[in-house]
Amino acid sequence: MRNLLIPMLLMLFATACVSPAAAPNSAQVPIILIGPATAPAASQSSNNSAAQPAPTGEPLANPTAIPTATPAPAQLIQLMDGMCCASPGWYSDSETVLFVDKPNPDASVGFYQININQPFKSELWNERIAFYTREFDYAQIPEQAGTRLIRISDGKEIRVPNGGRQVSFSPDRTRVIWTETRNTFPIENRVSNIMLAQIDFDGGGVAKPERITQVLRGGVNGWVDNDRVLLNGRKSRETFASTTFIYDLAAGQEREIFTAERSRLTSLSRDGSWIAYVITNDEDASRNGLWVKRTDGAAEKKVALFGAPQWRDESRLVIAPFEMGASSHSFWEYNVETGETRRLTPESDPFKIAAGDWSVSPDGKKIVFVNSADNNIWLWKLPD
Question: What is the value of pTM for the model shown?
Fold first, then answer.
């Protein structure tokens, strides 16, 4: 039942909620639940300091060296069984994993939660599915009358009059931005309007939406900070290349990041200082691959590895390299500041990710993924 119902549920939900003209490279908010206002109970942990030699009045003739702790190797842990689950993601405590499941014929379909320190002990978190912010503080439900926004702490709701298009919240939760693209022909000449509205859950509601700029067949990648957004789109009908650029809302100015006909997997670092992106099938073969670039334009680097990236913190990427015919996947780390690369997962523990379904925890110390060997959720605890 699990392996048939869950994919059907996700397909139906995606069909019902995706806006009519989704922009390429548009930032996607994770599909998640409208959960309780209180966070799941955090697991207790101890923080024992290493014993240090007591100071003496006289220096030692042969001082005893204090040993340096060796980083713990990566550890692979199975979290669920029974051919479970789909779309695993992280609660903000980095200890709780949420996923879609229907554990038995009589159980509800919904999002379930499990504490990583208590494998195989999941419980229903909420039956209601929605699009949720990374911090799990706001949710949105696209509807034809407009997208419903919900503040989880108190359940207050407001509605954005945008025809049910998915929005992206600003970091301070005072504005939302989205893309409106008319279904005109030819497709390559469709105009995308980038729309913005002020929001206030404490009485102000939603201000009248305003158009901030236009592109051809483009969209919103995300917020760099409260005053800048990352956008993409063709700048003219004379080119098929799409430009990814930063738009300053206060100044009304643009800063180009890169231009390519085919780019994907664009993502901002957690502090907005770096952007990672992949270029494919470019006429100039040297441009194909994974790149990182500072959002201020000060530095640009091509990464030797090619694969799907996710940010571990402000300066480190986790990459799942694409290797044709490989018997196992692996996770690697790339430091954008130093250019150093290291393998995070050992060859002695082979694994394969199902359908690219993996997620780095908010604290950057763990990865949860669906294992294609058994369709269950597994966990990697990463070295520091």
Answer: 0.79
Over residues 264-269, the mean pLDDT reads 95
Domains and CATH numbers, the chain: 22-34+128-261 (2.120.10.30), 264-350 (2.40.128.660)
Q: Which of 35-49, 67-81, 234-248, 337-351 is predicted least confidently?
A: 35-49
CA distance 237 to 353: 40
Who's near 203: CB < 8 A, 6+ residues apart? none
**Amino acid 308: pLDDT:** 93
Mean pLDDT of 296-309: 94
CB-based burial label for 144 (10 Å; 0-12, 13-18, 19+): exposed
Cα separations in angstroms, 307 against 24, 59, 263, 322, 332: 19, 54, 13, 5, 10
Q: How far apart are CA 102 and CA 107, in angstroms?
A: 6
Q: CA geometry: angle at 307 spanning 132 and 92, to 5°?
A: 25
Tell me the one-letter amino acid at 203: G
